[in-house]
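Quick start: read one record
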Amino acid sequence: MEPTEPTGTAPKTGEREDLLAMVADQRTNFLYTVAGLTDEQARTRSTVSELTLGGLVKHLAEVQRSWLSVIDGSAAPEVGWADLDPDGNRMTDGETLAGHLDAFRAGAEAFDRAVREEPDLDRAITLPRYPWSPPEPLVWTVRHVLLHAFREIAHHSGHADIVREALDGASTTERMAKAAMGGE
């Protein structure tokens, strides 16, 4: 379950494919960061933060599923504190990294398919109301949701890079360079 290789220069495919390529690239970078871990390593806190690599994989799998439900209209209109998984950002003893990676990849595939099949990236979507939402309803376009997913993956990739480096000294940048040269 190694990351997929970036393809280099992309053909001109239009905004939608360009945006999806950027999201895919962030996912690839994230997968380099978590490649080669054991379940024990994936559960290990290596910084003062509660973040673990397995928890980040689990969280980003859920992020992709939840934003997919916003795009396809199946999201609940309101989500309260009690609806949120208290272990949503941690990999528990009964969970495996392989299982979370499978969920991450399945979420990515479904999310990308929904974006590709969306007839209008400018379609307005009312977001679910969360405990941290502003009082007025938030309305985003499908494009905004896609850009938000990109931001979320990139944001947590940075966290993962720090957690991995503190765990065993592995460098995502070195792994990416090695892969680009055909070494990984």
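Residues 142-168 form the longest helix (27 residues).
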